[in-house]
Design brief:
This protein is of the alpha+beta class. Helices cover 37% and strands 18% of the residues. α2 packs antiparallel against α3. This is DUF5983 domain-containing protein.
């Protein structure tokens, strides 16, 4: 099988962690620790430079119920509403997106 790199296999969005507040990043880290210990949603996975969120109604609602900022809530709602984003990654070297608020922490 030959792989065409122009064909998306998984639809994902990557953003810089600068689009997160520091408390949001701490919340995602805490949720990732819980997920690693139990594999129960919300499905958040930590990595060396940020976090990856598996987008789904249960995960989005759980992150919002855990107290994320309105900014992160809006990003999550946008990913869920479009129905095409399977994973949302935040990475310290990820791209900045014009129109999204930036936080310096």
């Amino acid at each position: 099988m030959q792989f065409d790199p122009n064909t998306a296999i998984v639809k994902a969005v990557e953003l810089t962690t600068a689009h997160l507040t520091k408390p949001d990043m701490q919340l995602l880290q805490s949720l990732a620790d819980q997920y690693a210990a139990s594999s129960v949603p919300p499905t958040v996975m930590a990595h060396l430079y940020g976090a990856v969120i598996a987008i789904g109604a249960l995960t989005v609602e759980a992150i919002k119920a855990a107290g994320c900022s309105s900014q992160l809530g809006a990003i999550l709602d946008g990913c869920l509403r479009d129905g095409e984003v399977m994973y949302l990654a935040f990475d310290s070297t990820g791209p900045f997106v014009e129109g999204l608020e930036e936080f310096d922490w």
